[in-house]
């Protein structure tokens, strides 16, 4: 058991959050913003990249750039998207590297109807 040192005025300080906990909470807040956009795009017959949709809808960047991959995995596991092929990224910061293209599933279109 750890002891907590009270402040000089007798109050107990709020427990500190770990960096991992803060990142997880900020991921959850970010995903609440971007999830509905990607679900709506998945209900179309469009082929897209995550960068295109993020730019088009002016979505915020995640707390960590690797979280785009986690979002892609979650959407695929939920049955909203499937891979469609490859393209080059439109973002200049990645020097036109290869990225996956995505397409919504029939189940995503049925869910939107």
If you had to describe this structure to a student in words, what would you say it looks like?
- With 113 residues, the chain is α+β, with helices and mostly antiparallel strands.
- The chain has a single domain, classed as Arc Repressor Mutant, subunit A (Orthogonal Bundle).
- Helices cover 43% and strands 15% of the residues.
- It contains 4 helices and 3 strands.
- It has a 3-stranded antiparallel beta sheet with strand order 1-3-2.
- It is elongated and about 60 Å long.
- The relative contact order is 0.17.
- The model has no long low-confidence stretch (mean pLDDT 86).
> Helix-strand pattern, N to C?
HEHHEEH
- Unreliable segments of 5+ consecutive residues: none
**What fraction of residues sit in β-strands?**
15-25%
Biggest sheet: strand arrangement = 1-3-2
Helix content: 40-55%
Report the CATH architecture.
Orthogonal Bundle
The major sheet is characterized as:
3 strands, antiparallel
What is the tally of helical segments?
Answer: 4
Cα-based radius of gyration, to the nearest Å:
19 Å
Which descriptors apply to this entry?
113 residues, alpha+beta, Arc Repressor Mutant, subunit A, 4 helices, 3 strands
Question: What is this entry, summarized?
Answer:
Strands 1-3-2 form a 3-stranded antiparallel β-sheet. Helix content is 43%, strand content 15%.
How is the topology of this model organized?
Layout lengths: L18 H24 L4 E2 L1 H7 L10 H11 L3 E8 L9 E7 L1 H7 L1
Antiparallel strand pairs: 1-3, 2-3
């Amino acid at each position: 058991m750890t002891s907590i040192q009270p402040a000089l005025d007798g109050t107990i300080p709020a427990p500190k959050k770990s960096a991992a906990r803060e990142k997880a909470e900020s991921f959850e807040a970010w995903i609440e913003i971007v999830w509905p956009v990607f679900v709506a795009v998945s209900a179309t017959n469009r082929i897209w990249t995550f960068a295109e949709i993020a730019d088009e809808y002016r979505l915020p960047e995640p707390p960590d750039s690797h979280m785009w991959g986690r979002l892609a995995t979650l959407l695929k596991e939920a049955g909203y998207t499937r891979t469609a092929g490859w393209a080059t990224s439109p973002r200049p910061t990645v020097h036109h590297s290869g990225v996956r293209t995505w397409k919504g599933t029939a189940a995503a279109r049925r869910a939107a109807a």
